[in-house]
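Possible regression after last week's pipeline update?

I re-ran a chain I had predicted before the update to compare outputs. Posting the input and the new output here so someone can diff against the archived version. Not blocking, just want to make sure nothing changed silently.
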Amino acid sequence: MKKKSNDGTTVNSRLIRRPIQRWFPLFILPTFICFLIGFVWPFIQGIYLSFCTFNIPKDAKWVGTENYVKAFTDASFSHAFLNTAGFAVVSILIINVLAFAIAYSLTQKMAGANLFRTVFFMPNLIGGVVLGYIWSMIFDAILKSYNTYLTANATYGFWGLVILVAWQQIGYMMIIYIAGLQAVPSDMLEAAKIDGASNWQTLTRVIIPNIMSSITICTFLTLTNSFKMFDQNLALTGGAPSVIMDGAKVNMTELLALNIYSTYNINKNWHGVAQAKAVIFFLLVAVMAIAQLSLTRSKEVQQ
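New output (post-update):
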């Protein structure tokens, strides 16, 4: 008696696929309901509340675009945006350049490469608040010899945030770059070597074009993480130092997420303004992320 061959056709037969196609909505439904309750409904309600004044959502009263006018004319919000934009640019450059350099070094033949990968990745496992308090003690201990401290100067605070975030995220981005470097076709590298290409030419004309997908992912993550950063900012500097600008108190090292939090918690009459800032913040990050993805994806090499 002939044995039936167990190839892929039996698994993909109509007999198997038909019940899956019929019942898959039943299995997706619980997750979809959780998504609606936990994300879609709060998001829609948040947009509505951005046009209201309220202490709690139940007491919301419609005020139109008044909250958005206050948000755009708030000196602390515009300063936080400029601060966040500068922080994002610096962080993207430092994190991605160093992460790629480390990944490139660790994909060469060297002893202890796996150990180094683990060591570089470990800071990403530590929570942002914990990191903020640890690094604040480190920076203050260093600056104490100069009779100053981290939150006494906006420049110290800014670069302190950059160092903290770079130390935390470089290892994560390094892993993504290592995956991209290992996926570069070996025949291309061999052809470049046969043609007499230098290491720099191989890097710029063969390797980098072939890892553009990794560059796209890492740039997207560092961009969005820089704009969304909250816990490290709160724990490290809390926005300090503060100055009076245009008659309003402005925290010099405050980024956008912390500014929204401060607006909501400091003044109860500004809950609606904080919600308007959150909507503006969402649109801003979404537009920049989509623009960045479109720009970098257009340079990816199709293999």
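Follow-up from reviewer: compared with the archived run. The CA atoms of residues 210 and 301 lie 6 Å apart. Marking as no regression found.
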